[in-house]
Amino acid sequence: MKPSPPRSFWIPSILTLSLTLFCTSLYAQDKTFRAGAYSMDITPLKFPVSSAGSMAHRTADSAHDPLNARCIVLDDGQNKLAIAVSDSCMIPRKVYDDAKKIASKATGIPVSNMLCSATHTHTAVTAGYTFRSLVQEDYLPFLTQRIAQSIIKANQRLAPARIGWAVGNNPNQVFNRRWFMREGFDLSNPFGKQDKVRMNPPANSEQLLKPAGPIDPDVMVLAVQSADGKTPIAMLSNYSLHYCGGVPGKQLSADYFGEFAKQFAELIDAGPDFVGIMSNGTSGDINNINFFEGRHGKKPFEQIRHVAGDVAKSAKVAYDRIKYHDWVPLKVAETEIELGVRKADAAGLARAEKIVAAVGDKKPRGKDEIYAFETLDLAKYPDTVKVKLQALRIGELGIASSPCETFVETGLAIKKQSPLRTTFVIELANGYNGYLPTPEQHQLGGYETWRAKSSYLSTDSEPKIRATLLELLNQVAKD
Questions:
Q1: Which runs of consecutive H residues, i.e. helices, occur in 339-433?
Q2: CA dist., res. 294 & res. 298, Å (int)
Q3: Cα–Cα distance measured from residue 332 to residue 111, given in angstroms and rounded to the nearest whole number
Q4: Which pLDDT belongs to residue 26?
Q5: In which element (H, E) is residue 35 found?
Q6: What are phi and psi of 339, to 5 degrees?
């Protein structure tokens, strides 16, 4: 038999065991997962207002349904992050940056841990410069404060929670809008040249050949519920659909994004504090028109309700499959990269100046005149711009951000190459930097590539953004 250890041996052993149990208890307390959500009304308080989403300036004198900034805050005991999605066409980086600073001061959530994006409804208040639309300048401070408040109030609602995610599928509402056409179809662009594809061609036309790109039918669903599993708190979805439309010209609307939130809440019989959120995926070349077959005319808001309901049902199928976790780690990585700005050469500037001079005091009409003005506006831009990129890890779920109207090819590539099994991209996030065609799509031309305030990044920008986002995802994927 081995001799018993001396009495002095047991004293430090007992102390060590006690300290270990104490530290383990503290660690277990730290591993309480919390979540909070809030929906803040961002509908303008007075009308008329400038309404975004058109090449020409237009105004709205009422709102058909509320515009909201919907936010979810997550806390793993070590890190907090916030995701806020606003019903807007696009929002400039300064608004987001200022809103984050206000929210960070009030909540302690680092600015770098906040992802803010726009849904891309084409019937919201004009917050960013595109084409001839006039920014509603007096709305911007209000929007800034309301986005900040959505984060602050969501943080105030933090409570013990469970979290989970799943992937749904709905190919019925997404169609690539860039098409190859048969020989003889007019593919002229605003710069006196010929493209190889057409955006939004005539539906069900004999001149249609084939789409110039794929679609992404994924309906991503991230949900949080109370710790006892009885009360749904919030759900963040993601679908790669530009928007629906079908809103009367003088009205504002959250489009299908807001209607989706409403219908999903009804499907799960959620309480009044539940927050449903639809974020925009990579939909720069995707819309809701079935060009193969066309569609019959519909009454205002009819298509919005139909699409929202169909996608909400797909989200519900995924939602019902979720396996919830009592705790998951949260990680965020953020960086800034510099990208080039496309500008006209001397010949292009001279052509634009000639067209603008001929327009004189009249309003520009037609694509040649509109893009001539855009060419001169871009000449005043800096040669490079800085864009903010983020990657979030929520357990084994990855979320990447893009400040652009990003093509679906980019989103599919990021999903495929991400180190995290389930990944999606939220576009129009943390700023607005126009369309982001791939280099191959730039070669084909088409509206999304036409040089303007809505599409000005250098042709090598997409590979740089995609590579950086994958690097960030790799950073957050590391234990």
A1: 346-359, 366-378, 408-417
A2: 12
A3: 11
A4: 43
A5: strand 34-41
A6: -125, 155
Dihedral (Cα; 315, 392, 421, 260), 10-degree rounding: 10
Strand partners, 335: 389
Q: How far apart are CA 370 and CA 374, in angstroms?
A: 6
CB 408 within 8 A of CB 282: yes
Tell me how far apart the alpha carbons of residues 130 and 128 are, in angstroms, rounded to a whole number.
6
For 283-325, the pLDDT digits (tens) are 999 999 999 998 778 999 999 999 999 999 999 999 999 999 9
Instruction: Please check whether residue 238 is in contact with residue 290, taking contact to mean a CB–CB distance below 8 angstroms.
Output: no
Instruction: Spell out the alpha helix ranges (H) of 62-182.
Output: 93-107, 140-156
Residue 456 tokens read as: 């000005």
- Tell me the pLDDT tens digit for each residue of 268-279: 999 999 999 999
Q: Is 130 left (phi over 0), alpha (psi -120 to 50) or beta?
A: beta
Q: Report in angstroms the alpha-carbon separations of 148 from 7, 73, 107, 387.
A: 61, 12, 10, 21
Convert the pLDDT of each residue in 351-376 to its tens digit: 999 999 999 989 899 999 999 999 99
**Do the beta carbons of residue 229 and residue 39 sit within 8 Å?**
no
